[in-house]
Amino acid sequence: MHNDPTAAPIEQPENTGDTPRVIKTDEGAKDGLAKCARCGATEISLNLATGNLRCGFCRAEFSAQNAIEAFNLDADIGKLVGLVLGSGSSDIVPSTSEVLTFKCSACGAEVVIDTTSSTQARCHWCRNTLSMNQQVPNGAVPDMILPFKMTKEAAVERITQFVKKRQFFAHPKFRAEFNADNVMGVYLPYMVVDINAHARLSGQGEHETRSYTVKVGDDDQQRYDADVYDVAREFDIHVNDLTVESSSERLDQNTSQNSNNIINTIMPFDVENSVRYDANYLKGFTSERRDSNLEQLSPIARVQAEDVTRHRVNETLTFYDRGVRWTQEDIVVRGERWVSAYLPVWLYSYQEVKSNGKTFLHYVAVNARTGETMGSVPLHQSRLLLVAGAVQVVGTVIGIVLTVLGI
Amino acid sequence: MLTLSAWVIENGQVMAASSSDGEGGNLGLLFLLSGPIFYVVIYLKYRNVDKRHKHESETEASLHNMQLHDQFVQSKTGLTKREMAGANNNDVRGARRKFF
């Protein structure tokens, strides 16, 4: 196999901070026939029960090397300086084709792989499977992959349970057409980022010293006394495995237009269990190609890292029970490490056609590692409005009574 | 309908905040809004438009070499709000999920 599990870790480049340093993550990878080392067959796929790859003919099992160990990604974040990135995270060259042609080394036929949805294809002449493992600058081959762990049956069960709890107000057409067996296993593209930063936050915080009620007219009103402090915190922060979608479509999470926020919600993944990329992990699943570069993703990761910083430092601010108002936030990134990854999602999708002819794609997504499930179910608007109207009538009567009584 | 939902979410949050300030007298008003509140609760349960990955708390991070500075400035009395005006230590600015 091209990925030797016993291989020594790839030396991570030292970084002086001047130029981006690249970790070569497809070292030794080969395109074409990826054969079983024992019997030579190319029918290799993921065995969900063990997390290993298994030969479909001789049942031999093997796995790719853990990516964190292979690329030394658990190296001290505090020593990160400048930009370090996996070779599978490098910029996409616009002229690079998404559809690539490979010559089958078993029979000589030309086989086409459409990298928008897979990095494997079967030779139509000799039926061997051809894999694409070398990175070309089109975003199709990432640095690492986190294999599926949850079976399709388990995912179907979770999706069914999720929808079952949302039946009464679900659109009747959806109720009639829903079939969780249509769930698809998809590897979605993400960037996993480690950040070494130095932060200085300053502002004011308030600590409550007294809480009491005062009489204003006929009303009792609450009042508070507080001590005000100048507050500053200066520290180093190491952010580990911040995960950002790297498909422009998935990054668009405008909930009036799409339900991509559903897929976002099922994060985080246990990315530390990712392995070196091997196209055989994709057999039986589809994939979505990365189409965003660091230029687009870096500002997103920076702002999210600042959020992480602001929330993490709250553990030193428990005295300020009324809150802290930061007026100055200086967060300087000293070093960052980017690797691209395919992460596994069981995805049920349903296209709702609205009365005005517009369509809306609803998702129910299951994190195929942790089982976290989230979804969007189309609503039966008229039924919901009718019941909400009835609730309003009852509420109005109770509300008028309570208002008259001054409660 | 989404516009209505967003309006009610925003106003619901304002009401919840003012209610938590203990000003009282809002229970009747809450019942007067029971229809929109019911609509929003069901809408969110089915559509989950409010859900997102909480990157700010679900991302692993560690703090090192912490230096603290806390200097008393003054005491304030008779404040009407439970929370400090302009407190932003729980702000989240990097959420991708947007309502419009």
Walk me through what this model shows.
The complex is a heterodimer of chains A (407) and B (100). Chain A has seven helices and 19 strands. Chain A is flat and about 95 Å long. Chain A has one domain (21-196, 235-376). With 407 residues, chain A is of the alpha+beta class. Chain B has a domain at 2-50. Chain B is flat, with a radius of gyration of 19 Å. The relative contact order of chain B is 0.15. Strand 13 (219-245) of chain A pairs antiparallel with strand 1 (60-79) of chain B.
Quick overview of this protein structure:
The complex is a heterodimer of chains A (407) and B (100). Chain A has helices at residues 67-70, 152-164, 172-177, 248-251, 260-265, 294-312, 381-405, and strands at 21-23, 32-33, 44-47, 52-55, 61-62, 82-86, 99-103, 110-114, 120-122, 129-131, 144-145, 184-216, 219-245, 253-254, 275-276, 286-287, 323-353, 359-367, 373-375.
List keywords for this structure.
heterodimer, A: 407 residues, alpha+beta, ten-stranded mixed beta sheet, three-stranded antiparallel beta sheet, 19 strands, disordered N terminus, B: 100 residues, 4 helices, 2 strands, 43% helix
Write the layout of secondary structure elements.
The complex is a heterodimer of chains A (407) and B (100).
Chain A: E1 21-23, E2 32-33, E3 44-47, E4 52-55, E5 61-62, H1 67-70, E6 82-86, E7 99-103, E8 110-114, E9 120-122, E10 129-131, E11 144-145, H2 152-164, H3 172-177, E12 184-216, E13 219-245, H4 248-251, E14 253-254, H5 260-265, E15 275-276, E16 286-287, H6 294-312, E17 323-353, E18 359-367, E19 373-375, H7 381-405
Chain B: H1 2-20, H2 27-32, H3 34-47, H4 55-58, E1 60-79, E2 97-98
Helix pairs in contact in B: 1-3
